[in-house]
Amino acid sequence: MHWKTLILLLFYYDAHATVTPRWNRAVLFPTAQRAKRSSSDLTDPVLQNSLEDVDLLYEFLLAQLKIGKGLRISIKDEELASLRKAAAFDTVCNDIIPKSLTEIRRLSAKLSNYPTVLKKEDFERTVLTMVYTVYRAAQSRGHQKDAWAESFVSLYQALKHDLMFSDSKNPS
């Protein structure tokens, strides 16, 4: 009797899922929802809330990043790394953005079918994923280098589409 109930529930879930628009169910960065963090300030970090934040993010990237064992990303400059925003940067880079080619390709596929303008946090996470992808392409050789480069191009095209889509929705 229990297996019949399970099959009924699975059927109901599947039927409900086909009625719900696909993009409503698709989450671009699922690890952002399940990442465990010790600080409530970093529940779902967004790095760019002001022009100063944008400048600081640029400084983080310009100060050189280090990708260590386990693909952990850190800021080489100790002074910059000690800033409060650096903790949010660390969380986004190490707990949220995808790191494998498979995950990045999955993100690209979701982005290519995304029907609305990206949220601010999704846009910046996609940009940081592009930065990571370029780094991996530079460190790779042969077929792997080509695969990382193709992933970068796919992300670039998705962001370009998003920017064009947002311009058409908000003409100045």
From TrEMBL:
<feature type="signal peptide">
    <location>
        <begin position="1"/>
        <end position="17"/>
    </location>
</feature>
<dbReference type="Pfam" id="PF15173">
    <property type="entry name" value="FAM180"/>
</dbReference>
<keyword id="KW-0732">Signal</keyword>
<protein>
    <submittedName>
        <fullName>Protein FAM180A</fullName>
    </submittedName>
</protein>
<dbReference type="InterPro" id="IPR029170">
    <property type="entry name" value="FAM180"/>
</dbReference>
